[in-house]
Amino acid sequence: MKTKLLLISLLAALQLSAQSYQKIHNKAILVDTHNDFLTQTMEKNFVFDTNLKGKTHSDLSRMKEGGVDVQFFSVWSDGEQVNPYAFANRQIDSLDAVISRNPDKIVKVATSKELLKTVKQKKIAALIGVEGGHQFENDLGKLESLYNRDVRYISLTWNNSTPWATSAADETNPDGAKNSEDKKGLTAFGKQIVQKMNSLGMMVDVSHSGEQTFYDVIATTKKPIIASHSSVYALCPHPRNLKDDQIKAIAKNGGVIQINFNSGFIDPTVDNRESAFLEKHKSEIDSLAQAGLHPFIAQESIYVKYADESQQLRAPFEMVIQHIEYVINLVGVDYVGIGSDFDGIFLPPKQLDDVTDYPLITKALFEKGYSETAIDKILGGNLLRVLKANE
After folding, report:
1. Could you give phi then psi for residue 52, rounded to 5 degrees?
2. Residue 301 belongs to what H/E stretch?
3. Is residue 5 part of a domain?
4. Statement to judge: residues 189 and 48 lie in one domain
5. What's the pLDDT tens digit per position in 26-42?
6. How many separate domains does the chain show?
7. Which pTM does this prediction carry?
8. Could you please report the per-residue DSSP string of 201-244?
9. What residues contact residue 168 under an 8 Å CB cut-off, 6+ apart?
10. pLDDT tens digits, residue range 358-369?
11. What is the distance between the alpha carbons of residues 334 and 385, in angstroms, rounded to a whole number?
């Protein structure tokens, strides 16, 4: 009898816990600052408002199921793209087309006021982030045109540097490119770009930026900045991650670090294992690229074809929470959020298979004793504060 009563009590406690974290998750405004679905549209003709389960990390229905309230859709191209500004606008066009077909489900917004109104209506608020400053082609007029199309942040660089800012990839490579002034960091024109973004109300994103570029931004900006999809260097020493002093600088600036889900950015054991996996299948990847596939798509097809191998590379789910908690323990709960990189990464952590799994993050934080107020900040409140401060 005692055993039966204990079991009933345990089941009741588990049910109460599930209700409590799900209630917090549903009530919070969940903001993801980096989703690369638009690349999937351009490269594979995937349509966001169709059922893509098993093919992508995201689609409109699953995003709603996962409790996403605000999504920044990433506009991306690599440094080899011909006419990157036109390509960026094509990606925005593709998002606009989805929104025009689904006005009852998703709305593109330009301000925090519009965002909150849309969320209150139980619709997804869509904004845009441009991943790589090369996409406005060194033209402040084109930068402003992107702002007018509801771009609300620009990552100053992708892996490739621009003539006015150096990337993390190049700054950590002895043979990496320098800026037009033959040095690392921002040029005078790069600082002018930061100032222009400040004046427009567009958030400056330092994800992918080199360390010198980062500190030049900190010295130049008059508004809080973001790292839209970066994790913690102390836990995983990858050039794409932020060191403690950078995290402290963002906190002092009033900005926010949005934790990236890519396994190679959160688990220090992944990088070498993933490199070995890619080397093992290099000839096949090269063959696909030579046949005309974009290198990104060629690699992705190998992860899918050899799923049993690639799935073993994924980081433990708990490591995502460790990166969130590291920022909290270092600078406080006001400076961390979520920038998943879904549909731009091959290896999300275990359990975070797609956008429907966001409640697991709320559950983990709840079980660790974080208050509803703290969880609200992590899921989206901190980013909304920075967005409003830039306006």
Report:
1. -120, 20
2. helix 295-305
3. no
4. yes
5. 999 999 999 999 999 99
6. 2
7. 0.94
8. T-EEE-TTB-HHHHHHHHHH-SS--EETT--BTTTS--TTSBPH
9. 157, 159, 208, 209, 210, 211, 239, 240
10. 999 999 999 999
11. 9
